[in-house]
Q: What sequence folds into this?
């Protein structure tokens, strides 16, 4: 399939990262922003929910013990984080328009009961370029975490366009 396997030290079980996804890996001191791990994950979920809603997609959190964001039975956004000494790493993957066939070879996030979907597959709107959606995701992140100016805060975010790697 032309994929590489990488082991990580984050939660979230197995996932796929590739072209057509927005990957956001915030590095934040939870102590500095006054959040615990659960609220941090909830805010990451809200970031993706708000981004999906921009395109009329009614995304929502999963059922109990199902971290991530779903549209119906399809997962549109995955979360896998590591928190060490109160500092976050890893983060989220938001499916804009990835090749969903890659997910057929894994059990995404260890949840066999649900499928995987994408923003493109769930909206009737024509999507802008991925860079625009990446910027919207970062803006949603800033709003959910109360950042008014990311440069003024102790927050580093990285959104990768995996097609340019």
A:
């Amino acid at each position: 399939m032309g994929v590489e396997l990488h082991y990580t030290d984050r939660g979230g079980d197995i996932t796929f990262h590739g072209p057509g996804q927005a990957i956001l890996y915030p590095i934040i001191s939870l102590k500095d922003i006054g959040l615990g791990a659960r609220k941090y994950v909830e805010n990451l979920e809200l970031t993706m929910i708000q981004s999906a809603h921009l395109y009329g997609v009614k995304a929502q959190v999963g059922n109990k013990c199902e971290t991530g964001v779903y549209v119906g039975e399809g997962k549109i956004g995955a979360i896998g984080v590591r928190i060490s000494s109160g500092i976050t790493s890893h983060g989220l993957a938001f499916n804009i328009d990835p090749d969903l066939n890659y997910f057929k070879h894994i059990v995404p996030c260890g949840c066999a009961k649900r499928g995987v979907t994408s923003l493109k597959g769930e909206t009737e709107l024509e999507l802008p370029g991925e860079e625009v959606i990446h910027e919207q995701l970062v803006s949603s992140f800033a709003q959910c975490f109360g950042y008014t100016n990311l440069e003024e805060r102790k927050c580093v975010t990285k959104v990768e366009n995996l097609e340019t790697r």
